[in-house]
């Protein structure tokens, strides 16, 4: 009835450290998951797939990745777009080099390739931090995009310089190319998002997550209690890039179907993902998902309301949206640096007491 | 050692009470032209509380930084557990069994009390990323195992009520206590405390003194502490080493040090000719 833990007594540490310690949360989470897996695939159409669900899931994965690096380990990165490009091009090369390979391992391998590249570009983090590291990752962003433009091997010497996803299947169902059904691509992305959101949650709650957060909060103290800064920072770069690489691969293969590197993986993409985790909440898994949902749904919502219902010109609605996002970022940075996730936490704490004031 | 079940076998490396645990030999440390420490030698024996005192700028904190590997001395040797120590990184020294607290609290502000103390167990947690990602099974079992140890520390320090509070929101005295808890969680052979009672009121000092004595007596942890409150130092410590201007001017039991003319001069101040 009420949202509270009264009457729920934890008798083991296992129960105490569960992800959803309150029964209401648990029921709510599993209902949403069941709905997403069992009901949505039957209702989904092309518009919802391409405009809402797939972009949300792709960016949620990327936001999870960046949040691991920036929110949990405190290493600011502006190279997200570049790393997504690595994932996308790795995916393309794997798809064309091994036409019979199932899409699942292809996505994993794209992530793994990106993780290796991420470790390489993470090396400067051992010497520099803060703004300077952000600039170093910015260099990665521009270098990677330049590389994929410059070296024709990456796009298989195609005349346009674009990469296009051929049709590939999972268990006989097409997930890429023109024949892919909305329900199939949706389920494919959802499975990845569900599993890897879960994995992210597991990583941040245990030994590795605490090492990351220790480095984020005070690197010198972390080192003195026995955290190896080299391994910890590089592991954050590796895991983060793995997520972002998978997001890039899904972005290219399942969502866009074709990509041109400057346009698809430019600096705008890096900022977009950074805004997601700032608005959603730094250092929060839930925040990554909310931030991604917010940034993906906002344009759709604006378009439907202002252009669709009110008949305003498209550019006006777009500018309005830019102004709103900019305003919100300033608002969150000043008022609530931990984003929507923190607001949500505060609301829940208030709810526990409601309707009594204390 | 500390916080394991009674009756469990002691660490094989842990020597007998009274053996020399750590010896500093002729250590000199300078920053450019500034000599922070000049040819200092002393030892810390198994099971004792060793105080390091001296006026401001005497080189006490530099000495602790040398012991836990944050600074590498230009000259001199450090012997730990009977072996000469190589130049190690701080995180390697933490693995060797030296833990410390800081003069200015160095807690992880974004984490809860429980998580902060759990970070003290990081050197003892071994499950790799694969098991961590799966969580169910080995990683979860390991987590619970260490949680039990940490909960005993929380009980010991009487901070059960702030277990899940973010440490940034805690008052100063409690933050100091959480920091002690984090150092204890590593079950160190040697615990370095840098001004554990700085800025505390009398009641908080008494609490902290009680914890320090309990840690030393119940768990046999060797402690080296820096402190300015002479009353506390004289009551707590077994032996005191006195530094002034980077040099050692006194070493011995509290009563002896108290009568040492050089020490009195350093504290009261005499004209340096």
TrEMBL record, chain A:
One Pfam family name is BPD_transp_2
Q: Which UniProt keywords apply?
A: Cell membrane, Membrane, Transmembrane, Transmembrane helix
InterPro entries reported in the protein's UniProt record: ABC_transp_permease, LivM-like
**Main location per UniProt?**
membrane
GO cellular component terms? Answer: plasma membrane
Could you list the residue ranges that cross the membrane?
27-44, 50-69, 101-123, 130-148, 185-204, 234-255, 267-286, 293-313, 319-344
Q: Which CDD domains match?
A: TM_PBP1_LivM_like
How is the protein disposed in the membrane?
Multi-pass membrane protein
Q: Where in the cell is it found?
A: Cell membrane
Q: Which GO terms describe its molecular function?
A: branched-chain amino acid transmembrane transporter activity
Do you know which PANTHER family this protein is assigned to?
A: ABC TRANSPORTER PERMEASE PROTEIN (PTHR30482:SF5), HIGH-AFFINITY BRANCHED-CHAIN AMINO ACID TRANSPORT SYSTEM PERMEASE (PTHR30482)
Q: What is the protein name given in its UniProt record? A: Branched-chain amino acid ABC transporter permease
Organism expressing this protein natively? Rhodobium orientis
Automatic annotation (TrEMBL), chain B:
Q: What cellular-component terms does GO give this entry?
A: plasma membrane
Entry's Gene Ontology molecular function annotations: ATP binding; ATP hydrolysis activity
Any transmembrane segments, and where? none
Question: What are the residue boundaries of the ABC transporter domain, all occurrences included?
Answer: 22-270
Q: Supply the SMART domains for this chain.
A: AAA
The UniProt entry, under InterPro entries, shows: AAA+_ATPase (IPR003593), ABC_AA/LPS_Transport (IPR051120), ABC_transporter-like_ATP-bd (IPR003439), BCA_ABC_TP_C (IPR032823), P-loop_NTPase (IPR027417)
Keyword terms:
ATP-binding, Nucleotide-binding, Transport
Name of this chain's protein: ABC transporter ATP-binding protein
């Amino acid at each position: 009835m009420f949202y509270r833990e009264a009457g729920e007594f934890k008798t083991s540490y296992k129960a105490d450290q569960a992800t959803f310690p309150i029964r209401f949360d648990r029921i709510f989470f599993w209902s949403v998951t069941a709905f997403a897996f069992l009901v949505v695939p039957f209702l989904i159409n092309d518009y919802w797939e391409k405009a809402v669900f797939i972009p949300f899931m792709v960016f949620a994965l990327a936001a999870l990745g960046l949040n691991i690096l920036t929110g949990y380990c405190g290493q600011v990165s502006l190279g997200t777009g570049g790393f997504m490009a690595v994932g996308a091009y790795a995916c393309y090369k794997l798809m064309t080099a091994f036409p019979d390979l199932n899409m699942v391992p292809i996505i994993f391998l794209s992530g793994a390739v990106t993780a290796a590249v991420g470790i390489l570009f993470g090396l400067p983090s051992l010497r520099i931090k803060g703004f300077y590291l952000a600039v170093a990752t910015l260099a990665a962003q521009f270098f990677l995009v330049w590389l994929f433009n410059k070296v024709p091997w990456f796009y298989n010497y195609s005349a346009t310089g674009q990469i296009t996803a051929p049709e590939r299947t999972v268990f006989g169902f097409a997930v890429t190319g023109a024949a892919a059904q909305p329900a199939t691509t949706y389920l494919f992305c959802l499975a990845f998002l569900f599993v890897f959101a879960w994995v992210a949650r597991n990583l941040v709650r245990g030994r590795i997550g605490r090492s990351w957060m220790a480095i984020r909060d005070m690197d010198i103290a972390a080192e003195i209690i026995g955290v190896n800064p080299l391994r910890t920072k590089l592991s954050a770069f590796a895991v983060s890039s793995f997520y972002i690489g998978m997001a890039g691969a899904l972005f290219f293969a399942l969502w866009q179907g074709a990509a041109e590197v400057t346009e698809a993986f430019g600096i705008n993409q890096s900022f977009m993902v950074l805004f997601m985790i700032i608005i959603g909440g730094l250092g929060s898994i839930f925040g990554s998902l909310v931030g991604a949902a917010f940034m993906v749904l906002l344009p759709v919502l604006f378009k439907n309301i202002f252009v669709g219902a009110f008949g305003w010109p498209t550019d006006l609605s777009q500018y309005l949206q830019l102004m709103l996002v900019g305003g919100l970022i300033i608002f969150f940075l000043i008022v609530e640096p931990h984003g929507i996730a923190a607001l949500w936490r505060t609301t829940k704490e208030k709810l526990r007491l409601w309707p009594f004031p204390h | 050692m500390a916080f394991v079940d009674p009756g469990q076998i002691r660490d094989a490396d842990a020597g007998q009470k009274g053996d020399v645990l750590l010896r500093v030999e002729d250590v000199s440390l300078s920053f450019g032209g500034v000599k922070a420490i000049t040819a200092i030698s002393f030892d810390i024996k198994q099971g004792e509380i060793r105080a390091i005192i001296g006026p401001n700028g005497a080189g006490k904190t530099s000495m602790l930084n040398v012991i836990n590997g944050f600074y590498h001395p230009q000259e001199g040797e450090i012997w730990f557990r009977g072996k000469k120590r190589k130049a190690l990184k701080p995180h390697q020294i933490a693995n060797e069994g030296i833990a410390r607290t800081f003069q200015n609290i160095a807690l992880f502000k974004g984490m809860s009390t429980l998580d902060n103390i759990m970070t003290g167990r990081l050197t003892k947690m071994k499950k790799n990323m694969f098991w961590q990602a799966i969580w169910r099974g080995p990683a979860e079992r390991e987590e619970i195992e260490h949680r039990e140890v940490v909960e005993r520390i929380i009980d010991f320090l009487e901070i059960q009520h702030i277990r899940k509070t973010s440490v940034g929101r805690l008052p100063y005295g409690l933050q100091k206590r959480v920091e002690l808890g984090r150092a204890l969680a590593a079950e160190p052979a040697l615990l370095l405390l840098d001004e554990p009672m700085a800025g505390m009121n009398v009641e908080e000092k008494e609490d902290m003194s009680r914890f320090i004595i309990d840690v030393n007596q119940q768990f046999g942890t060797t402690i080296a502490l820096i402190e300015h409150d002479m009353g506390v130092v004289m009551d707590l410590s077994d032996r005191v080493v006195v530094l002034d201007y980077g040099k050692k001017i006194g070493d011995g039991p509290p009563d002896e040090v108290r009568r040492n003319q050089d020490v009195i001069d350093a504290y009261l101040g005499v004209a340096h000719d």
